[in-house]
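Running low. Invent one:
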Amino acid sequence: MNKMETDKSKLGLVHVYTGDGKGKTSTGMGLVVRALGRGLKVKIIQLFKRDTGEQFFFENSGVPYLQFKPLHPYFKNYDSAQLENIKKEFLEFWKAALFDIDEYDVLLVDEVGPGLNWGIISEELIFDLIEKKPKHLELIMTGRDFLPSILEKADYVSEIKKIKHPYDDGILAREGVEF
């Protein structure tokens, strides 16, 4: 292997897991577990979720795990004033959450897609993250409704497609399986 191939293998890439199927967060978390198993330093940022199984696991494991906790936009209709307040809160959270980004090998940001779709996260903010992230950092982003412009900038884009889901038959999310 020549020096150029070696250098490229050390570059952190950008992953997007999107689509309407179950498993976007689970896929990102799987990569996180693999990275931890190999001794990489990981940070997790979860947006719009609370009281999840992964939250309880990672909070008890010592892995840096942060949450931005407004209720998910899919489950609450926000008026324009509420959305403006959430945007301001998010920008403060985002700045504080990324201050030490250079210290990590892997960063998972869960539910970026809905944040973009609802205008809580700007396209420019994600472009800035992608362009200014440390070269070694593997960046994983999940969620439905990613903008095509962000998909173009990613190195990996996987679409999780729903073929069948129990929710369609009235079975709600189950603790330990869906959350």
